[in-house]
Amino acid sequence: MLLGLAALGAQAQKPALSDLGPTASVAPSALTAVQSLIDAGRWKEAEGALRSYLEKNDESAEAHAMLAYTLLREDEPQESLQEYNRAAALERPSARILESVGQDYVLLGDWTDADRWTLRAIQMEPTDADAWYSLGRIRFSEQRFGDALSCFQRVLVLLPRSVKAENNLGLAYEALNQTDAAVAAYRQAIAWQEAGPANQMSEQPLLNLAVVLLHRGKLKEAEPLLVKAANLAPKDSRIHEQLGHLYLQQSDYAGAQREFQEACRLDPANSGLHFLLGQAYRHLGRKEQAQAEFAISARLASAGTPKAP
To answer: What is the DSSP string of 109-137?
Structure first.
């Protein structure tokens, strides 16, 4: 066995991957159409087609691996691991497969195994920028911020001008209290994406830079960043929350009420957002609506719903 995987819980065991030798076969032509479904993100159709294919071709390592990846993308990590195990029993797992196994463990909240499998993928393929990025995200989640920083720096060596790596570099610097370096990284990520295709713009570096600027009291600089981020990701409650904070600091209580109201609509179970909306109503002199929001916030908080940071 290549490596034993820990138990999922009291009733089930995570599968173990087998290391039986080199990769042996190329995907049969019948799987080409299924790969097209996967490439298009049509996960349910791909899953159905692969299960039908495996009914008559259960010895196909490629089909099991494709089904495992499809299940990963459908947020079914336990079933995905089982399929990766079946694939590994037939043919040696590739580095890309081991990286995906790591992502299954991310979904399961098992950071130790996520780290272990992703690191193994890197050991097999040390120039895989995606694997280094995944390891950086895992180590950031483990609060190993220095290690995460090193991973994102490695990504940028392998894949220069990667916006997501530069943005995450900023997050790692910020977690290490190196705020000036974080700001520089966010600005660099924004500059790179503005020089690239418009359809690949991300709201993340805009939001992250704006939050730092808000904390520094630079409201005029933060506002256009948040407005642009909201245009890119109008359903992200965090952006509307930060706009609400900005308008509160500007004493624009009607603007704050509008943004906190939208944030509550997008994330209605967040007790902290209802509390902030109540504050905006209070500033506007709308006492009954303020009390109603404070009551909702208290009820959600008592039920164990975390407040907004």
So the answer is: T-HHHHHHHHHHHHHH-TT-HHHHHHHHH
230-309: CATH superfamily: Tetratricopeptide repeat domain (1.25.40.10)
Map out the domains of the chain as residue ranges.
1-108, 127-200, 230-309
Rounded distance between C-alpha atoms, residue 162 and residue 15, angstroms? 34
Q: Which tens digits make up the pLDDT trace of 102-148? A: 999 999 999 999 999 999 999 999 999 999 999 999 999 999 999 99
- For domain 127-200, the question of CATH label 3.40.50.720 is answered with no
- Predicted TM-score (pTM) of the model is 0.84
Q: What is the pLDDT of residue 304?
A: 74
pLDDT at 21: 35
Would you state the structure tokens that stand for residue 132, as one six-digit string?
Answer: 């280094």
Identical fold, 1-108 and 230-309: yes
- Helix (H), strand (E) at residue 167: helix 163-175
